[in-house]
From TrEMBL:
Name this polypeptide is given: Nuclear receptor 2C2-associated protein
Superkingdom, taxonomy of origin: Eukaryota
SUPFAM superfamilies in UniProt: Galactose-binding domain-like
Family classification: Belongs to the NR2C2AP family.
F5/8 type C domain segment(s): 1-54
GO cellular component: nucleus
Keyword annotations: Nucleus
Subcellular location: Nucleus
Organism encoding this protein: Aegithalos caudatus
Length: 129
């Protein structure tokens, strides 16, 4: 897992580990700036089918671009998603089934004036191959 930035470089409080910890009280909080992103490298190929996101309202992304690739290949665009500016879990992002080893989610347009993104939960559903 890699992320574009962490608010005030406070990895302990706002780091990438909080994307997947299942806690309602922790989150990944990016620093300010445009085009924040998260990259996931899978230990084996996966068939991606669905993405689940939970933002903090007011710090969400109007546009999420998904890119993926197999090991040794260049990233290619898979899909564009248009999340709601809401704190609710958004679970209905169906993705065209794609086999990949690496996934990059780019948050291209933040609802926050300074470009910050706050994600409480990121779920990537699919099948290991």
């Amino acid at each position: 897992r890699r992320v574009s930035s962490v608010l005030n470089r406070d990895v302990k409080q706002f780091g990438k580990q909080h994307l997947f910890d299942g806690s309602e009280e922790t989150c990944w909080n990016s620093d300010q700036g445009t085009s924040q992103w998260v990259t996931l490298d899978f230990p084996q190929p996966v068939r991606l089918s669905e993405l689940r996101l939970q933002f903090q309202g007011g710090f969400s992304s109007r546009l999420c671009t998904l890119e993926g690739c197999r090991t040794g290949e260049e990233l290619v665009k898979i899909s564009e998603l248009y999340p709601q500016d809401s704190h609710a879990m958004q679970i209905s992002f169906q993705v065209e089934e794609t086999v990949l080893d690496k996934l990059k989610i780019t948050f291209g347009s933040s609802t926050d004036f300074f470009g910050r993104i706050v994600v409480y939960h990121l779920g990537v559903l699919g099948e290991r191959l």
